[in-house]
């Protein structure tokens, strides 16, 4: 989604400041997903398909309600259904709308080697600019939530844009618009946190002691947040990461080690150049050639036929010059 | 014909060995340039040499495989001459003399010196590391078979191996400039008796002892 937006705070594989003269003075945005209100109707999935003109391949029923069973390049959000038997022996049907979390510290952007293929706007949205994408899949390697998917057709990476095109003109994302229960809410991140606090207080008053907001600090917070009944066990919700953060391996791979490695390579070249200047080449002088010739010629001749112009073929090993 | 060329009568590298070496060099240059494009944003422009970002991403693994495949016969042919001997460790202890062009205290060197041998092992290890990690991060064909933790580790291993390989090759290239006559040896195959006497005396004795020395007809 490329709109000239002038409100970019981070740009992949770019070491200078991106165009960011426009700022979000109203604050960053956030989508709040209240899993305690979600009925799993998938209207959000349909709205996403409709607004973004995406049609996934018709799949097959995999035995659970998840449909499609996973995120794909054409399914930027999917409902994940988890059955949880709580300590009281009751069944809880935990439904989570999965999709990009729009991290404040995005691992995809950190890992991306293509300048401008991933950007982060000042409103917090992390967006892929697929025309700059080279299809390497490093965003998948960097993502702590397993979100980006590479299309098998065009080999570009796709994911939820948080409807950056709609938000840019003051509309709420399509999924929010379609949600019939109010499980999806959109606004400034501050407002969403306040709203979530009310929801959490309400849930606690009704017996969900561990209810809470999922806004993981390991990735600097996210611009898609969850209200969870069991905020102490996010993994109950189809494996939501309890403490997501950019992997230390990715940090090492993409962090300060890269410029250091680059400098080390340049230093190797310079070291060679200055060695040449200070010490100079190893050259063969006349004495070496004389010694070499003498060693060859001093060798006793054998009867084996010699090719014309070839060096004498043997010498006495004991007769050192 | 220059003085050096006239005197260069000892065959050091056959035409087959030279061809093999330069094919590896070609593979290295192409794989390194395309890989560096993805290594750091400052070098992304190198991707233009290969037709842009997506083409660089498509070609790089094949260029790397090409380098590896042509490296195999080269490695097989020089394997025997690259075993580390006691004299090599002695040579390495005198590295300071080596670097400062003081040959007096150095042991006699065989077909390859300890630096060349170390280079050989570093190249071999890096190539193996690059192959294994490269397969894991080859998104189009193979990444789907590996868990994310393995892919992350492989990404790091690939970058580290490439970094070590590139630095080693930079040293190798400089050494070829430094030791006058080496480049001619790899381009035209021959060295002068003085060159062999000075830099690889044990090898020189070996070939001049042989009943059928490897010499070049004029």
Report on the structure:
The complex is a heterodimer of chains A (321) and B (218). Chain A is α+β, with helices and mostly antiparallel strands and 321 residues long. Chain A is 27% helix and 16% strand. Chain A is elongated and about 100 Å long. Chain B has 218 residues and is mainly alpha-helical. Chain B has one domain: Transmembrane di-heme cytochromes, Chain C (Fumarate Reductase Cytochrome B subunit). In chain B, 67% of the residues lie in helices and 2% in strands. In chain B, strands 1-2 form a two-stranded antiparallel ribbon. In chain B, helix 2 packs antiparallel against helix 3, helix 3 crosses helix 6 and helix 9 crosses helix 10. The longest helix of chain B has 31 residues. Chain B is elongated, with a radius of gyration of 20 Å. The termini of chain B are close together. The chains are: A alpha+beta (321), B mainly alpha (218). At the A-B interface, helix 3, helix 7, helix 8 and helix 9 of A face helix 2, helix 3, helix 7, helix 9 and helix 10 of B.
Query: Helical region count of chain A?
Result: 9
- The beta-strand count of chain B equals 2
Give me the oligomer status. heterodimer
Helix content of chain B: 55-70%
Structural class of chain B: mainly alpha
Class from secondary-structure proportions of chain A: alpha+beta
Strand content of chain A: 15-25%
Topology (elements, then pairings):
The complex is a heterodimer of chains A (321) and B (218).
Chain A: E1 8-11, E2 29-34, H1 43-52, E3 77-85, E4 91-99, H2 107-111, E5 118-121, E6 126-128, H3 138-142, E7 149-150, E8 157-158, H4 164-168, H5 174-178, E9 184-188, H6 189-205, E10 212-214, E11 224-228, H7 248-254, H8 257-278, H9 286-297
Parallel strand pairs in A: 2-11
Antiparallel strand pairs in A: 1-5, 2-9, 3-4, 5-6, 7-8, 10-11
Chain B: H1 3-7, E1 10-11, H2 15-39, H3 53-78, H4 86-93, H5 95-99, H6 114-136, H7 148-178, H8 182-188, E2 190-191, H9 193-199, H10 201-209
Antiparallel strand pairs in B: 1-2
